[in-house]
Amino acid sequence: MSTLSIDPRRLLRHETVLVFLLAIALLVLSVQSEHFFTADNLLNQGRLMTEVSLIALAMTFVILTGGIDLSVGSIFGLVAISLGVLWQSLGLPLPMAMIVAVMIGGAAGLLNGLIITRFGVPPLITTLATLMLYRGLAEGISQGRSVRGYPDWFLQLAQGELLHVPNQFWLLCICAVAAAVILGCTAFGRAIYATGANKTAAWFSGIDIRRTQLWIYIASGLLTAMAAIIFVSRVSTTRSDMGTGMELEAITAVVLGGASIFGGHGTVIGTVLGLALMQALKNGLALAGVRGDGTIIVIGLVLIATSLISNSFNRGKS
Amino acid sequence: MKHFAKSIAIFVLAIASSSAFAATWTGADDLPAQPLSCDATPAPAVARPYDGGAPVNAPSRKGKKLNVVDVPKLIGIGYFNATTKGIAAAAKELGTVKVRTDGPTRANIDEQITFIDNYITSGVDGILFAANDPVAIAPVLKRALSKGINVVGYDADAAPRARQWFVNQAQFNSMAKVLIDTLARETGGRGNFAIVTSTFTTPNQARWIAEMAAYQARCHPQMRWLETVEAQEDNMLSFTQTSTLINKYGDKLSGVMGMTTVATPAAAEAITQAKRCGKVAIVGMATPNAVKPYLNKGCMKSAVLWNPVDLGYAAMYALRAAADGTLRPGSTSLKAGRLGELKVVNGSEILLGAPYVFTKSNVNGFDF
């Protein structure tokens, strides 16, 4: 297996760059605005970033296998609408509706995985098609109406706190640790790296690449579904246009975190750092008085800069 | 072979999903409509108690300098540029307000919430907003109120408890009446018409469509509503959708209604290019600059809107008055600078006035 394992120095480099950038960003931003580096604000950011972060964790796995999942934003909308319709129109008890909605997310991921693995359609094309398909279903099912009036206990899920930390941030931490352990310490994790690095070699090494990919896309659907339910609870309404464009935010965080878009390299820690950097910039720049359009320019520039820095470190080795 | 099987599978799924939703529903919401009477009788005014929210432990801001942020649905489109202009003009006139406009570049509920959240943290005194979703925006606005921030909406409301006041540009039923009456006049009261809207989920548009359907059924029963199409707030898409309607219905189509300030001029352009001027009437909401050429050439006879500059202007005055405590629960009017006295309606709304119809004879006097 040693030929398949990745050079730890190479990954360390990118993550070190990120830690360094994040430290600079935190320092500069807290000088720019006294409201930035406060417990209140940082915890609130934890609440706001959970949905995209959950999706980005799953996206890390997808991208590691050399795939991509463009349909997550649409699965997000479909799950949100399903939750509302199952509960309000079909009269299911809300906890049951939540479970079924998460399963719908899993099924959407399963369909992606089946098309990719059984028919050999490239993930980009498959998920581009299902991006439209799932969004269309969401709009059709919702008929343009939003579902509102959720009970208080449900709204507390994503608006409440446990030990002063937003509920969903706990969940995010658990998921991040679990993802890091699965990727770093299990045979399944190694199978993912192997699949992404070289499918043929992985296949000849006895790895069931189809099954690996299938599970990854199901997991992507499931985590996206969880994110959608948290989002519905946070904003207390359901609309079919929820999650539009979310796939790009998640992919940005993953590649900012140093994962190769061709598969094979990347870590959960990288993604988490990428997410933290993005959220710090979005929030900190806004507090420092930079307008919204300025913020996205900075995020674009940071993405280019980290790629360049990381590439220049690695050039000597390849 | 495998590819073939896959494409068949996707095709079947696509057809199945689209055909399931055809049928009668055409983009209205399901709240009850209150159509006005067919003649000009005004609706009976019902006095309602104040139903807005109140900031918690707000410091006395009477006459003090205010730091205000304006978060519209999105920035960078003509309509909200105009409201921004009005807000800035009012702030300058008042002299005691520092205001900035900031918001998402697309009409996205999540991004808008995040913007407001950040401005609450940065410690503003007042927030002006135009909501992308009335319910989704409510928790963050309530958070603003709980921090003692004055909150006033305009253009698109939030749940009343989540803000103090809302400046209503035109009541939904009076807008619907003007639009349908105008279209009826231009199509002889018995034409087939189609609607080009933003998306079926946009609350204002869905509400107008619901009111229009109710009013048309009551007052112009011989008109026929063919369908409603979605065109986001996208220029190209609105043009394409209108062209499709023209091709699809041919001579049967005698009117197109544009529900957004983007859709109406694009629809007028589509009708001009299809050489159907005079055969297909185009009525809708539009800013005067965008429809000037069509009105002047006569391809379009009327566009309906309020003045968004006045809307922003009134919102700024309402916020200042709310912060000063001169506009408070129980007030029946607001002194809004050059606009004079504006009436308080529906408990906690301030009514800007009646919708304004732009025609060839008056459009050249406007510039926004």
Tell me briefly what this model is.
The complex is a heterodimer of chains A (318) and B (368). Chain A is mainly alpha-helical and 318 residues long.
Q: What is the β-strand count of chain A?
A: 2
Distance N terminus to C terminus of chain B? Answer: 58 Å
Classified by CATH, the class of the largest domain in chain B is Alpha Beta
Oligomer: heterodimer
Give the uncertain stretches of chain B in residue-range form.
17-23
Along the chain, the helix and strand elements of chain A come as HHHHHHEEHHHHHHH
Q: Greatest chain-chain interface?
A: A-B, 44 and 46 residues
How do the SSEs of chain B run, as a string of H and E?
HEHEHEHEEHEHEHEHEHEHEEEE
The proportion of residues in beta strands of chain A is: under 5%
> Structural class of the secondary elements of chain B?
alpha/beta
What is the name of the CATH topology of the largest domain in chain B?
Rossmann fold
Q: Work out the helicity level of chain A.
A: over 70%
* Main β-sheet, spatial strand arrangement of chain A: 1-2
Q: Mind telling me the CATH superfamily name of the largest domain in chain B? A: Response regulator
Helix content of chain B: 25-40%
End-to-end Cα distance of chain A: 20 Å
Q: Based on the coordinates given, report the CATH architecture of the largest domain in chain B.
A: 3-Layer(aba) Sandwich
Structural class of chain A: mainly alpha
Biggest sheet overview of chain A: 2 strands, antiparallel
Main sheet summary of chain B: 8 strands, mixed
* Spatial ordering of strands, largest sheet of chain B: 2-1-3-4-5-13-12-11
Sum up the structure in keywords.
heterodimer, A: 318 residues, mainly alpha, two-stranded antiparallel ribbon, 13 helices, 2 strands, B: 368 residues, alpha/beta, Rossmann fold, six-stranded mixed beta sheet, 10 helices, 14 strands
Topology:
The complex is a heterodimer of chains A (318) and B (368).
Chain A: H1 8-32, H2 39-64, H3 72-89, H4 94-119, H5 123-142, H6 152-159, E1 161-162, E2 165-166, H7 167-185, H8 187-197, H9 199-204, H10 209-235, H11 246-256, H12 268-287, H13 292-314
Antiparallel strand pairs in A: 1-2
Chain B: H1 2-19, E1 66-71, H2 78-94, E2 97-101, H3 109-121, E3 126-129, H4 138-146, E4 150-154, E5 165-168, H5 172-186, E6 192-197, H6 203-219, E7 224-230, H7 235-249, E8 253-258, H8 263-273, E9 281-285, H9 288-297, E10 302-305, H10 308-324, E11 333-335, E12 341-345, E13 349-351, E14 356-359
Helix pairs in contact in B: 2-10, 3-4, 5-6, 7-8
